[in-house]
Design goal:
By secondary structure, this protein is of the alpha/beta class. It has two domains: 15-160, Rossmann fold (3-Layer(aba) Sandwich); 164-302, LD-carboxypeptidase A C-terminal domain-like (Glucose Oxidase, domain 1), CATH 3.50.30. Helix content is 31%, strand content 21%. The strands form two sheets. A seven-stranded mixed β-sheet has the order 6-13-12-7-8-9-10. It has a six-stranded mixed β-sheet with strand order 2-1-3-4-5-11, with helices on both faces. Helix 9 packs parallel to helix 10 (252-263). The chain is globular and about 50 Å long. 51% of the residues are buried.
Length: 308
């Protein structure tokens, strides 16, 4: 694992592009999210196809080509400082291979923010561009537009990242105690498993701090997904594991038993309830940065701010 390039932080007045690489948007939620961004003195520009809905496949925001074109256009626009995903859902896997990576690389480092289905883009931007990205809330997500904690943590990460270098988990006994250092990687568990065998497959996590979360996956399915990563060798040599939110994934005591069974034998610290992912007040966590995970203290501390 290697530390990636940190993009520049944002400044007041910065232009940010809003894209929909996955599912379709609800207009009222989009407008509410845009209002939040304008309140931060940002200049949000919704890309041309972000409000589309695929004619035959209603779970997609427009065609694969149009969604890819929006992301390509936004990233290559020299006036755009950051690209923010409007929501998750499904669809990024279908369009990620349509991107012109040489052109994206030539555009230079910028900020990418998104979570859930955006996991595939986080992996691709790490592998192909060598960039730190932000696993954070979606602009049109209900957990963002109605939650001050999620808004303020993302805002601080974008404008003053040195103020949020330490993320504190919910209090409770460590699943596996100890401290570990490594490079952060991960995202939505089901998306990481779905990417195995593709160009965006999660790397072997040797020396890494793997951050995992998901939504709507029952305990036996979480078991299956973790087992798939283990059987594929993707957790070999991992330095530590950080677990985020598991909303609608069943009774937590059942999930905790799965985590203990599947992750306990790795012999590394496992920190629970970090508070990122599909949850109210979701925190923003950077992927691709050096950090220390302290399961006893309940903290994830970045060596440097997520953005420079």
């Amino acid at each position: 694992m290697r530390e990636l390039v940190r993009p520049p932080r944002l400044a007041p007045g910065a232009r940010v592009a809003v894209v929909a690489p996955s599912g379709p948007l609800e207009e009222d939620r989009l407008e509410a999210g845009l209002d939040v961004l304008r309140g931060w003195d940002l200049d949000p520009v919704v890309q041309p196809h972000a409000r589309d809905r695929h004619a035959e496949l209603g779970h997609l925001a427009g065609t694969d080509a149009d969604r890819a074109a929006d992301l390509q256009r936004a990233w290559c626009d020299p006036d755009v400082a950051a690209v923010l995903c409007a929501r998750g859902g499904y669809g990024a896997q279908r369009m990620v291979d349509l991107l012109d990576w040489d052109a994206l690389r030539a555009a230079g480092p910028k900020v990418l923010v998104g979570f859930s289905d955006t996991t595939v883009l986080h992996r691709a931007f790490a592998d192909r561009l060598g960039l730190v990205t932000l696993y954070g809330p979606a602009v049109a997500g209900i957990d963002f537009i109605k939650n001050t904690r999620a808004q303020e943590h993302l805002r601080a990460t974008l404008f003053a990242p040195e103020t949020v270098r330490t993320i504190v988990a919910a209090q409770g006994p460590a699943l596996v105690p100890g401290r570990a250092r490594g490079i952060t990687l991960g995202g939505c568990l089901s998306l990481l498993a779905a990417d195995l065998g593709t160009p965006q497959a999660p790397p072997v996590a040797r020396g890494g701090l793997v951050l995992l979360e998901d939504v709507g996956e029952l305990p036996y399915r979480v078991d299956r997904l973790l087992t798939q990563l283990l059987r594929a060798g993707r957790l070999e040599g991992v330095a530590g594991v950080g677990l985020g939110s598991w909303v609608k994934c069943g009774p937590y005591e059942e999930l905790r038993a799965v985590f203990a069974d599947r992750l306990g034998d790795l012999g590394v610290p496992v920190l629970e309830e970090i508070g990122f992912g599909h949850c109210d007040g979701a925190l923003t966590v950077p992927l691709g940065v050096a950090a220390e995970l302290d399961a006893d203290a309940g903290t994830l501390t970045l060596d440097e701010p997520a953005l420079r």
